[in-house]
Amino acid sequence: MRIILLIALGGGLGSVFRYLTAQFVNKHVQLYFPYATFTANILGCFLIGLFLGYLEKNHITNPDLKFFLVTGFCGGYTTFSTFSNENVQLLQANQIGTAFLYIGLSVILGLAATYAGLMVSKG
């Protein structure tokens, strides 16, 4: 039960931070591209690398922190379902180029951000 509560708490916090990220991005960026979800997903990829690298570097083996930060917070902060829905909407609006750009950048920069987070955390 403790693990479920840790994941729920982390997931709730991650979801709130995703909402706040979206509000901030949407306030400052007015172009037609799903920047809010894109930003949250790329930052989430960086954070998962950062958290996992930090836990590994510092030999933190207690699974509670990993459940809270990685499964909970990063799981709540990032959103594959919204990413998928936004791409379907782009395709339905015949914005084929934008959809493929969004998909390609998300995958490439997501992987790069995870790797960067690992490298930063390992110093």
Automatic annotation (TrEMBL):
Pfam families membership: CRCB (PF02537)
Localization: Cell membrane
Coiled coil ranges: none
Residues that bind Na(+): 75, 78
Listed GO MF terms: fluoride channel activity; metal ion binding
Keyword Repressor: no
Spans through the membrane: 32-55, 67-84, 96-118
Catalytic reaction equation(s): fluoride(in) = fluoride(out)
Bilayer topology annotation: Multi-pass membrane protein
GO CC list: plasma membrane
A single GO BP: cellular detoxification of fluoride
Key words of the record: Cell inner membrane, Cell membrane, Ion channel, Ion transport, Membrane, Metal-binding, Sodium, Transmembrane, Transmembrane helix, Transport
Regulation: Na(+) is not transported, but it plays an essential structural role and its presence is essential for fluoride channel function.
Keyword flag Membrane: yes
Family of this protein: Belongs to the fluoride channel Fluc/FEX (TC 1.A.43) family.
Alphabetized NCBIfam families for the sequence: crcB (TIGR00494)
General function of this protein: Fluoride-specific ion channel. Important for reducing fluoride concentration in the cell, thus reducing its toxicity.
Protein name: Fluoride-specific ion channel FluC
Organism, scientific name: Flavobacterium suncheonense GH29-5 = DSM 17707
